[in-house]
Amino acid sequence: MKTFQIYKSYNELPKSWDDLLSHDIFLQASYLQALEKASPSNIQLFYIGVLLDDELIGVAIIQRVQLYLKDMFRKTSVSCIKTFFRDIVSRVLKGNVLVVGNLTHTGQHALYFDKRKVSQKDFLEFIFQGLQVLIKEIREIQSKKIRAVIVKDFFTDHGIIDDKSIFKAHKLYEVIVQPNMILPVREHWSSMDHYIQDLNKKYRDRYKRARRKLDGIVSRELDIETISKQSKKLHELYLNVSNNAKFNTFILPENHFYCLKKQLNDNFKVFGYYLNDEIVGFYTLIINGKHLETYFLGYDAEHQYPNQLYLNMLYCKLPLKPNCLKVEK
Predict the structure, then answer these.
(1) Chain-wide mean pLDDT for the chain?
(2) Are 280 and 217 in contact (CB under 8 A)?
């Protein structure tokens, strides 16, 4: 018999959880544990498991997100048109929203099921049943009304969106968003020089200018002790970038990068940029099997443009040589 189970913490996940999800680090217990321990204050995590008798055959990551105007639009200098748009968006989204997926990262990390043991239609029906139970419990226990349900993200060629009838039956509608930037790594790129050689002259010159403008700034990987000691500074640099975004739904806590490093070990990388032994920027990476996925970054605005920190960070991600480099916009 097939049924579903709601889990309210990584501590409740069945032992077979990672066996089913070995292909995706963003669905594995170690990552979920880190995310719970260092989740944005407005995000609460739940998990739905679909079971065949007692065997786990499908999962969904659920986040209850409390959206506040101050978090969504942190830049105060906006035009009348932007203010009008902001007010419309905030009226629709402000409040409690259930997200099937991970709001802190883009990509197809919301759902997974064993196609040999459950059909897509049946799997999704169990997930929507679980969502209705969660919505009721949140209303009764936490006195919070869920204003919307979001299921994210899927590539346009993903089979799960071929049949939209089940989503429409639950009053969900497709929204097109900016695509992930994905760069396949060519076989002969065994060093940065090989990558640069494949660029046309315009971009080779751009690379050389960016490297020259580092002007004494050096990059090195941070170990867990350094990440712990530098947590406050890393968070300040992250906020420099986050606070200048046009739209936000959360703020990472100060311990976020430390918790990920503690749980993911070598699968989570933090690279710091130092000028005279002072950190002026950083970027983070998550190794997900054969894919290298960019994560959050931060920099001192004083050094961003004159030293082209962001562009240099993009270049420096290439030599790690997984099969594919995924760059988040």
Answers:
(1) 87
(2) yes
Q: What amino acid occupies position 182?
A: I
Q: Which amino acid is at 78?
A: V
pTM confidence score: 0.87
Q: Is pLDDT at 71 greater than 70 in this prediction? A: no
DSSP letter, residue 176? -
> How far is residue 203's CA from residue 113's CA, in Å, rounded to a whole number?
42
Distance, CA of 191 to CA of 133 (rounded, Å): 52
Q: What is the DSSP letter of 131?
A: H
Q: Is 84's pLDDT higher than 70?
A: no
Determine the residue type at 186: R
Contacts with 258 (C-beta within 8 Å, 6 or more apart), sequence order: 38, 224, 227, 228, 231
CB 108 within 8 A of CB 154: yes
Please state, in angstroms and as integers, the Cα–Cα distance from residue 65 to each residue in 33, 88, 228, 251, 320, following that order. Answer: 18, 18, 27, 12, 34
Q: Which of 32-36, 119-123, 153-157, 204-208 has the lowest mean pLDDT?
A: 153-157
CATH 3.30.1380 holds for 2-169: no
User: How far apart, in Å, are the Cα atoms of 321 and each of 142, 185, 325?
Assistant: 46, 7, 8
Q: Could you tell me the pLDDT band of residue 93, with boundaries at 50, 70 and 90?
A: low
Q: How far apart are CA 142 and CA 149, in angstroms?
A: 17
Residue 237 has which token pair?
């640099």
The CA distance from 164 to 141, in Å, is 32
- What span, in angstroms and rounded, lies between the C-alpha atoms of 177 and 102? 15
Domain 181-327 sits in CATH 3.30.365.10: no
pLDDT tier, 76 (very low <50, low <70, confident <90, very high otherwise): very low
Question: What pLDDT sits at residue 88?
Answer: 52
